[in-house]
Write a structure and sequence with these properties.
The chain has about 375 residues and is of the alpha/beta class. It has 15 helices and 16 strands. The longest helix has 19 residues. It is elongated, with a radius of gyration of 26 Å.
């Protein structure tokens, strides 16, 4: 995976990438549109080689322009091709792409409400990353009609109705089987509703220089199994657990021992050396009998947690911790330990509720926990 495939951009970042490609490398919008359309056509032929007909829905912007390019190439290859225009082209590049499709003999219809033409494969080129407000009017009606057809859908750049920044879908949204996205991966494909409606994500760099991506700050980076493995240092064949770090995992209040046990197993599988679980006395023996590779430490008071913290390099706190007095006592002790911290689950909930000041730590919230920490709605995460 290249650097450009790890960086995640929003709507503004995607536009900046286009501008940098144009201003520094002379790649005009029309050239980028042509490359994007050609790449999308190659993807659809690889994914659906038996498709004999294609229906493309085009919006007014450059995402619609991509659709006209796809339609021209599909028609030239012998596919039965119909383009449905939701609105007239609103950019010079999209208008030129439409003219070229018409000149090539592509059938172009104006959407008039109701049902869309059927085809073996449906292509969504309505909005892309250009959504500024929830879909309304003909655009919303078109999205509904597209979703009613029982055919595979390929979205171009973004499923229409999905926000590139957050993955929120404040209105109607296209449900795609595959999304092909260009130049930079979009954060919204991986957050919010993105994973539910984007299907398989295919990245096409369309031969844009890597320097373009280095010039635009991403919103986030994509963490994959391969990228994690690549970041791990090599180990000697004779290395033992005492040379691979000592980790303490704190949690597992009454009825929640499974969470801290799973965290301990995950730590061992990911390569931590000596892993100790600090949990309720009643849980320690049970976990130790089922997972003998884990060290277990029963903790009921401050003296117990201070003993467990001795000699440790890092602490994970939160899985099954609960938010009662026992959990709060453990959280305060761990925060004051001065060790490197990973805070999860109920540890985050207590921080959000009490506004506890924590040292520089790694936080691993799900959207609900992140919303509580930031004081916002989960849909904004």
């Amino acid at each position: 995976m290249t650097g450009s495939e790890e960086r995640l951009y929003g709507q503004s970042g995607a536009r900046q990438l286009d501008r940098v490609a144009t201003s520094r490398y002379g790649l005009g919008s029309g050239e980028l549109m042509g490359r994007a359309g050609a790449a999308a056509f190659r993807v659809l032929r690889r994914r659906w080689p038996e498709a004999m007909s294609i229906m493309i829905v085009c919006g007014p912007g450059n995402n619609g322009g991509d659709g006209y390019v796809i339609g021209r190439l599909a028609h030239s290859s012998g596919l039965k091709t119909i383009i449905v225009a939701v609105a007239a082209p609103a950019t010079d590049e999209a208008l030129q792409a439409r003219d070229q499709a018409e000149q090539a003999g592509v059938c172009i219809e104006q959407f008039s409400g109701g049902e869309l033409p059927d085809a073996d494969l449906l292509i969504d080129c309505i909005l892309g990353t250009g959504m500024k407000r929830p879909p309304a009017g003909d655009i919303a009606t078109t999205i509904e009609a597209l979703n009613r057809l029982d055919r595979p859908v390929m979205a171009v750049d973004m499923p229409s109705g999905l926000e590139a920044d957050s993955g929120a879908a404040p209105g109607k949204v296209v449900h795609a089987e595959l999304t092909v996205t260009f130049i930079g991966l979009k954060l919204g494909l991986y957050t919010g509703r993105g994973p539910d409606v984007s299907g398989k994500i295919v990245y096409e760099g369309i031969s844009v220089p890597e320097e373009v991506h280095q010039a635009v700050l991403p919103l986030a980076r994509l963490i994959t199994g391969k990228s994690v493995v690549a970041s791990l240092p090599p180990r000697r064949k004779t290395i033992h657990k005492g040379e691979s770090g000592q980790l303490l995992i704190v949690g597992g209040d009454a009825g929640m021992s499974g969470a801290v046990r799973l965290a301990g197993e995950a730590a061992l599988r990911s390569g931590a050396g000596l892993v100790t679980v600090a949990t309720r006395n009643a849980h320690a023996a049970v976990i130790n009998s089922t997972r003998p590779e884990l060290m277990c430490h029963g903790v009921e008071d401050e003296f117990g947690i201070e003993s467990a913290l001795e000699g440790k390099d890092c602490v994970v706190i939160g899985p099954g911790l609960g938010t009662g007095e026992w959990g709060r006592m453990l959280l305060n002790s761990v925060i004051n330990s001065g060790l490197t911290l990973v805070i999860d689950a109920d540890g985050l909930n207590m921080i959000a509720d009490s506004q506890v000041s924590v040292p520089q730590s790694i936080l691993t919230p799900h959207p609900g926990e992140a919303a509580r920490l930031l004081g916002c709605d989960p849909d904004e995460i």
